[in-house]
Amino acid sequence: MNKTPQCGVFFCQIYIYTQMVICIAGLGLIGGSLAKDLKQRGFASRIIGVESNPAHRRLALKQGLVNEIAGLEEAVKAADLIILATPVDAIRQILPKVLDMVKGTNKVVTDTGSTKLCLANIARDHPGRKNYVAAHPMAGTEHSGPRAAINGLFDNKCAIICDGEKSDQASLDLVNSMFGILNMHVILMNSSLHDISAAYVSHISHIASFALSICVQEKEKNEHNILSMAGGGFSSTVRLAASKAETWTPIFEENAEPVLEALDAYIGQLLSFRKHIAGGDTKNITRMIHQANLIQQVINKHP
Fold it and tell me: Using one digit for the tens of pLDDT, what is the confidence trace for 108-150?
């Protein structure tokens, strides 16, 4: 792996790496989309896929997402950068094994998991910890599998790097450069704060979508015309309800405490709306809607 310095907008120096061999474990939406852009944008000269699903292996090869498929040990041995893009429960199982394989080398390990504290605890005292950069590129759709992989999924999205002080500088440089190639904005956080923030801005949105979808389906059993009224607002609200249980059940399990905190806060706001609607309190209904409207101003303040 060779590198030459390159100027760019980032919080540390960006490098362009040549002859980079990348292992991507997990070839679904996130892993497949990473493979597409890292290959097409010249960051990787060769991508080795690791995938437990035979159908996904065949699709990834057919679509040209990866150059080859290999077992985890063989792929890690050949790679400069190892990206763990499986669901978080699988990352939890894989990470110690991969750190065992890379300790004492210059290989770099990163991940795409939506929860970070559990992984931080696993890696904390491992002799290969400096090779690991805990990351969460915050991008996605409700679709899954290699067919869902798309170009530009990560452009102008946010990437979180957690506990960066525990990684060595070379590992951080490499992962930062990868996010630079993907046109992502990088934010540094500690793992605990990340998990709380993710519960509020990501995980609760999925729960709300799942719950609304179930409510409407239950009502549809008795009133068969209800879905004929569904328009763009309903479709956009329940879009996330198509997300796979294989992805989200482990997230809710790993991040239970922050998710419950966010869920309690959300339920509290729903109960406030219910109270004001039941009481005909239009003043407070209007106040809450106006307060909700302010979120767009908050969002616009951030890249």
Answer: 999 999 999 999 999 999 999 999 999 999 987 778 888 888 9
Paired tokens of 110: 């990163």
> What is the rounded distance in angstroms from the CA atom of residue 84 to the CA atom of residue 98?
9
Angle formed at CA 238 by CA 236 and CA 242, multiple of 5 degrees: 115
Q: What is the b/e burial string over 177-201, where b = at least 16 CB atoms within 10 angstroms of the residue's CB?
A: bbbbbbebbbbebebeebbbbbbbe
Entry pTM: 0.84
Written in H, E and C, the secondary structure of the chain is: CEEEEECCCCCCCEEEEECCEEEEECCCHHHHHHHHHHHHCCCCCEEEEECCCHHHHHHHHHCCCCCEECCHHHHHHHCCEEEECCCHHHHHHHHHHHHHHHCCCCCEEEECCCCCHHHHHHHCCCCCHHHEEEEEEECCCCCCCHHHCCCCCCCCCEEEEECHHHCCHHHHHHHHHHHHHCCCEEEEECHHHHHHHHHHHHHHHHHHHHHHHHHHHHHHCCCCCHHHHCCHHHHHHCHHHHCCHHHHHHHHHHCHHHHHHHHHHHHHHHHHHHHHHHCCCHHHHHHHHHHHHCHHHHHHCCC
Measured CA to CA in angstroms, residue 128 lies from 3, 107, 184 at distances of: 22, 10, 26
CA–CA distance, 85 with 74 (Å, rounded to integer): 17
In this structure, are residues 144 and 244 in contact, taking their beta carbons and an 8 Å threshold?
Answer: yes
What is the average pLDDT across 24-45?
A: 94
189 Cα distance to chain centroid: 15
Give the range among 1-10, 129-138, 226-235 with minimum mean pLDDT.
Answer: 1-10
What's the pLDDT at 261? 96
| Residue 189 token pair | 């956080």
Rounded distance between C-alpha atoms, residue 285 and residue 273, angstroms: 7
To the nearest whole number, what is the mean pLDDT of the chain?
89
